[in-house]
Amino acid sequence: VQLQASGGGLVQAGGSLRLSCVASGNIYSIITMGWYRQAPGKQRDLVATITSGGNTNYADSVKGRFTISRDNAKNTVDLQMDSLNPEDTGVYYCNLNQLRWMQRQNYWGQGTHVTVSS
Fold this sequence. Notes:
By secondary structure, the protein is an all-beta fold.
């Protein structure tokens, strides 16, 4: 499975960005797709995930500002980020978690940089 992310960049505080990720390859039964981020010097943390049924989960720090969406037919997941602040700066990684042969498989994209200036 390959995950190709796009949409990162530099934006001023209060601005918006939209991240997109498309999955390809040996895709079977996707459990969740989502986004994680890693700020400089910190661990990779959950931003948001979405199930194939549309159930979402957000980090508390992004609730009300970020919206995750998914196209099951196209195997894509998007993250609309509004009201960005400098604490949102980091490398954003697309994630896919699927079930294959009764085992969960986890995949990561290459990461896309988001920089929010104050």
